[in-house]
Amino acid sequence: MAQITVTLDADLAIEVMLLSGTKNPQDAVELIVRDFLARGRRTEARTGDAADAQRADSPKPIAQEG
Question: Which domain of life is it from (predicted)?
Fold first, then answer.
């Protein structure tokens, strides 16, 4: 897997470490990013995608009178 280097402000790195409960800032950022991506996938699975929105907004059939 390819790796990149990201420079963060020290305060931001410490905050991420506290949120993730790790002692290594690199591991902390990786955990936060992985959680963010997993949360996005779970939300997408629940709500669907743009094509699902069009299907939900289709006009309702008009009741026949008479």
Answer: Bacteria
